[in-house]
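User: Please run a holo structure prediction.
Assistant: Happy to. Please share the sequence and the ligand.
User: Here you go; the ligand is iron/sulfur cluster.
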Amino acid sequence: MLNLENHNRSRHLEITPSNDPWDPIVSLREYGRHVLTSVEMTVTNLCNMRCEHCAVGDSLVMKEPDMIPLKVMLDALDRVEHLRTISITGGEPTFRKQTVDEVIVPLLQYAKARGIRSQINSNLTLDYERYEKLLPYLDVMHISFNYTSERDFHEVGFARSGHAVNPDVAYRMYHKMIENAARLSEAGMFISAESMINYRTHAKLPEIHRLILEMGCRRHEVHPMYAADFAEGLPVLPLADMRRAIHSLLDARDPEVWMLFGTLPFFACNGNAEDAELLRRLRREPNVTVRNDPDGRNRVNVNMFTGDVYVTDFAAIPAFGNVMDTGLDAIFDDWLNNHPLNQKVNCHCDAAGCCGPNLLVADMYYKDIDFKSRKAITL
Ligand code: SF4
């Protein structure tokens, strides 16, 4: 029997720019060290799309095995002492109705009963009824939106299909996604639309932003694309173009709408003037936040088919344990205290609100930099 009451230390604060429970710096400040507050669960490797940049593209399948029993997962969550958020991911988590009814809804009900926050990653291209079922429980519906037209969607969303996809099919899915997002927003769902900064989008972020607002989304998330998984062979954007893209978006955006930047490759300990100027601007803009990366800081991912537990999304570190035989807190502590890769990047400059770079970012742009010997200059 799950002991929900003992764990019911809810933070019923609304999710706003000043309350982002996914940011690892919140628990770092509260406990004086990193603790596991966030568990992501992969509930499917099926998807109706094959995006060019998919961060889990190599795991996608056409058919999948049985899952571990839901009770094992719920018991594992129940034992995470400081759990504050869960995220549900795929593939497209709603691909099978059965997954929605038998896995996703029960996980969301658990989260709500325990007073923790929930997020799901979806492409929103399936029937409205699948998403409507989540409305009573879900805190954040997270979607990807990198398009200015149905043609963009067709080109990007099926680039890795391995066969030609009829444009009309793709166009219908694009309009379904927009219609679903607008309808769910209207019904009160908090939709956070994420755009990547990459070689395709960097010059058209203001137009993408405008379309996201038209759908009624409550937050626009912006993350640079990194060369992982399907994105591995795509062109890497120079840092100067990335800075320019962010400034152009800040110039054009609606300041009433929350913009969340994440996984940025700009740090307060960098000496150059352009980075300092951008970081200062991000700090003073209204309704703009920069989230520290949860990867390896306050989050683990559980594969619900094997029970394997991963500590980072991006960096290709193999499973660090299994939920069938080890507690998630123990797995996370082992990573935190003993893994040499974590020791490379676990710096913290509180005045700058920074707790270090993502491993992949450090590897891509700062190969020879020892972050542990640096300190924030730009405050
Ligand atoms: S926490 Fe690390 S990355 Fe961030 S400013 Fe300090 S030294 Fe740089």
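Residues 167-186 form the longest helix (20 residues).
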